[in-house]
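Section: Multi-chain targets

For targets with more than one molecule, the full set of components is provided together so that the structure can be written out for the assembly as a whole rather than chain by chain. Components appear in the order listed by the source. The example entry contains two components.
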Amino acid sequence: MTGARHRVVVTGLGVVTSIGTGVDAFAAGLRAGRSGAKPITAFDTTGFAYSNACEITDFDPEAWITEQSPDDLGRAAQFAVAASRMAVADAGLTEEQVRGVRSLVSVGTTDGESRDLDHLTGLQVTSGDDVLDAVVARRVWPGRLSAGIVRELGLEDVETVTVPTACAAGNYAVGYGYDAISSGDVEMALCGGADALCRKTFTGFYRLGTIAPDVCRPFDADRQGILTGEGAGILLMESLESALARGARIYAEVLGYGLSCDASHPVAPDRDSIARCITAAHRNAGIEAADVDFISAHGTGTKANDVTEVGAIRQVFGDELPRTVSIKSMIGHTMGAASALASAACALALRDGFIPPTVNHRTTDPECAVDCVPNEAVAADLKVVQNNGLAFGGNNAVLVLGRWDTAPVPTVA
Amino acid sequence: MAAETGAPPAELVISGWAVSSPYGLGRAAFAGGLASGRRAIAPLDGADWPVPYEEAGLIPGFDIKAVLGRKGTRSMDRVTGIAATTVGMLLEEYGTGLAADPESTGLVLGTSGSVQSIMDFTRDALTGDKPYLVDPARFPNTVMNCPTGQSAIRHTLKGPNVTVSGGAATALLSLQYASRLLRGGHGRALLAGAAEEFSVQRARLERVADHGGAAPQPLGEGAALFLLQDAADARESGRPVLATVLGSRFRAFQDTARAGTALERCVADVLAAAGATPDDVELIAPGTPPGLLGKQEESALDGLTGNRLPVRSLVGDAGAASAAFQLAAVLAEAEADPRLVDRLTLVTAVDRDGTAGALLLRLA
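Its structure, encoded as tokens over all components, is:
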């Protein structure tokens, strides 16, 4: 696309999910097709006919947050900080080494600390409009999601930004890191997404009739919607030169990404616009559709999303669709963390040679007929994978990752 | 036309701008207000605004339906209305030709959405007959990218549509994001800037926030957006080059006492990268946060002799839109003062969550 850019690789992963915290537990969960679905405990669900979500019930903020008071961070920021610490360690770096280079921290989110805003609203309702929990009130602004990481790691030569571009935000944040490193602006980047379960978002999706009563079944004829989820995924990225110079283990190369905006409807996805986004990503990455070995779909498991998304994929790929999976079947829809966690899953898939399954699957819907790798992971020799992120506001972002040792050299587009 | 075309921009410029501020809608009101030095902060009607503040910088008489019409505005919240209005003003004045290439035209908006919309939605859930009896049309308002996405819908902007957030530095981060997108080939023309609303819930939350150890200042609201593109594209389409973006630098500080050092480094780095010296800076629009943060910013800018443009003291603490107003003030000043042609200008921000940033421009 442009000359003399740096190649960008992923060398560290940090994940907090309902099927496992830490890259090894997450990888094992993906391979085993584990499900994080369970009854919600995050808030009182009295009055809802059903209320499963992919909640994280074993997260211990004190284990990860040591340089600031965990109470200064909301749950989403706590996830983000924990995942960042993991990503640095997983990359074989000390935090001092990260402090020594110019970096970018970009964290995507849908809801920021809306769980805290739920809490503050609840206080107003029960105790009066003037009643405020000041400790919580000070941590609700979304900037804290990225600033919390910077504070925890003691970074100074860093650009810190939160990217609240809803449910594709993780891909936006990772794409931004790719551009910042490939242009030479920064040497390393900690990028991804984080969100915490909250009443507000569960209620909104429930009201829209898009919450599944039991589990999430993407591409299934009987799919009934999403399960809300929570967690964080952070990718540590650096230039290929930097990774090679320090002998780092490389999960994957970031080949490029594309963005598009539907500019048509606030919540309904638009097939042509998604197809345009996929095409832009392929062009940016210097690949052809036929190069893609599998697609990690947005795959929410709603009627509308899966048909529209597969239609868009078909528009670009023709009848030769690559296997198309949704890890939301396992970890739920983790909102702003979703495409970041899916990016992490893609990176693991490339390194370890497997495709994560779409679990809870019974009968594929002919309206969105894909090989979704039903229920059991498969071994696969992968070179290029595509990760879709779609969001409210018609905000689409598609990321392309490649196995670094065999990745095609990007061609001029 | 594809979103990615041609070579990366050689020279990024601002070729248009628009502002909605406590002085009113439009550039003329803003420029006139600043030039007069009149404070745009007015007493609040406690019945309309039950907030722990006596005064605020509201966009005078802002009424979404009056400005944008009834279509598509039934459930629109205030920050979305402000953003969509400002995007519309920019496109109306400077948008010639952009509509022909909607897929390469995008929006990078700095905003943290509307805490009012989020909390109202949860309140409805908690107080209704059933916990799910909420207005589904208002659900998108509770997601922070709503102003960005809605602005794209109203004005058919199909290129990159990105929402960014970073406190008082938000608008500088937004311009940086847009610059990288353009350099990365993700679009040809991007509107970049920030929007903020005044609301009861924002006021309640801001009242207890850390204001550098000082008392909270009156809150402001509004939006300012800037059209960013390659200089050659701007000239080809008959748009004026108002300023060249020379670069931005950001750093973090762990405690407030280090904020000045962080900003000083940002300024030194951004000047050095542009091959400029402190003496070249003719005009500075600092963030002027209250308390210790403000003192830190002042000390960081000590070595610069350029004129200071006060903004916050006149329009209030505009939250996410703060630095967008500062940049708008610079462009308003440049329009009025021909001596600023070819001179450098700095916009700086120091955010309470630990970010310092500086944006360097050459005025045209």
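The two ends of chain B are 30 Å apart (CA to CA).
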